Amino acid sequence: MLEALKQEVFEANLKLVEYGLVILTWGNVSAVTPDRRLVVIKPSGVPYESMRPEQMVVSDLEGRVVEGELRPSSDLLTHLELYRSFPSVNAIVHTHSRHATALAQAEQELPCYGTTHADTFYGGVPCTRHLTAQEVEEDYERSTGLVIAETFQGRDPAAVPGVLVCKHGPFAWGATCQKAVENALILEETAHIALLTKIFNPSAPPAPQYLLDKHYFRKHGAGAYYGQA
Predict the structure, then answer these.
(1) The one catalytic residue among 60, 156, 213, 226
(2) Is the pTM of this model over 0.70?
(3) For 115-140, how does the pLDDT look when each residue is reduced to its tens digit (9 = 90+)?
(4) Does the chain have fewer CB atoms within 10 Å around its N or its C terminus?
(5) Is 19 a known active-site residue?
């Protein structure tokens, strides 16, 4: 069942290790089927070096396991809320990558300081509010997805394909597993660059809107001209 999607999700999870975005078992990738009825996700707590494609877990959009002998990632309910809230998102990545997680712990958004950021994220990457004690106690993982969706009210998740969950870490997403992993990698790299920017110049302002517009829209949208036709 969904063997091709399982392989894609498996390979995307391994990319997190290759790119240095996770250590131990800290992270996960999922993908939703084209009809948005089923989700394939990494199993919980399984080391990347011993993981196999057939161990990927299939669930429905209510979190019921449809196929798989292992428990799904503990973040499954967060992923499901994002699929329900963001119809354009087909794959989701969660990591605890160092610099993006540090920003989340500092309760700060990631400003757009320059063109490296603007090529992927159309403006700052937001940080969510704190979850309440009740939200954590009653339905932690689902509440994490809901607070991300709340943060994106009035924002386009396709234009800003990532978020920092306060005191937790980054989530990123995309139209494919490959794109979601790429966005997670760029989120970590731009968080690192932002830290260095503030070290060199603590009062450095964000990039001007006209520069953000130029760099974002030359890669995205109807007028994009970056890369090959």
Answers:
(1) 226
(2) yes
(3) 999 999 999 999 999 999 999 999 99
(4) C
(5) no
